[in-house]
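# nightly structure sweep
# worker-07 picked up a monomer target from the shared queue
# config: single-sequence mode, recycle default, output format = structure tokens
# input follows
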Amino acid sequence: MTYPHTIQMVDLHGQYLRLKPEIDEAMQSVIDSSAFINGPQVKEFVGQLASYLQVPHVIPCGNGTDALQIALMALGLKPGDEVIVPSFTYIAAVEVVVMLGLTPVLVDVDSLTFNIDETLIEKVINPKTKAIIAVHLFGQCCDMETILQIASDHQLYVIEDNAQSMGAICTFTDGTKHYAGTMGHIGTTSFFPSKPLACYGDGGAMITSDPELAGRLQKIANHGQAGKYNHEIVGCNSRLDTLQAAILQVKLRHLDEFNAHRQQIAKRYDEELSVVEEETDRLLLPIVSDYTTHVYHQYTLQVLGSDARDKLKKHLAERHIPSMVYYPLPVYKQHAYKELVCFADEKRRDESGYLAKDVLSIPIHTEMKEDEQTYIIEAIKAFYGM
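# output follows
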């Protein structure tokens, strides 16, 4: 059994073809003006994203890693201060902590949501703890209401890494709804081409409701300048170029549509693969916490059993179906960070370590066709003899 066309993890070219008239017009307008740096589209996009997220301040920058670094710099943390970070995440959140001379404290994650286990956070807080980085992994929010309460109780800053969950909504117990990235002191995001809101190169942004923080973030991203050649604080050079901003203006208009389509695909995966989960006990489907929506940047399975994940990956590859392992090693098993220790409750297993052996993300994107998904579902069922 083979599928007649190439199946993609993310079909960026197909998406471009669908949006081609809008994208081409937006890019041509930048080329015609030749305002490639800090052109009007940058300011327009920033205002549009702020309006979408219902926040007063969005500060653009060069990429998502810069956004995290600048956020930490803006908080005025000192070398040796501790920052709580999930142990199962992309390395950027830990990398920037170490680069600034701060100390990352790794906390294990929930095995079903893949997000930081909020029940473990208070157990690692001490006088050196200054901040928590909450990574909204794969498309759904962390338990931000609990995290914010812990932070308030201990006078800690909260940074949200929202690179994978733009458009997800977190509902608090009082019924109020908040977009991912808007609840902490600073939200950060990436516009890397595969992200939910994506450009055609690198780009990022920081989000805050605090005007003082917004001013510091803006200065730091622009060489620490209060005005041209007036450098008040130590900064860096990190900016969103105009071509990328023009593309993001187009993509932002379609963001809810993109998210809805991935949610529809995820719903069908849930419906079709639930029989495998129920009858074999060897497959776990992703869950959605009751306090958040999920925009499915990834649809991530847990494939249980010795070497089962790698066998399923090979089975899919033989049928020309791509899959990815996000992430094959937890942070504390990376060579550069081998001195770090993951804090996990002594009464349970190390979830980050187990997830690294079991997770497998399968194709989900804005251009996926029904017959493509049928082919993928049938291949997975066949692996389990169904």
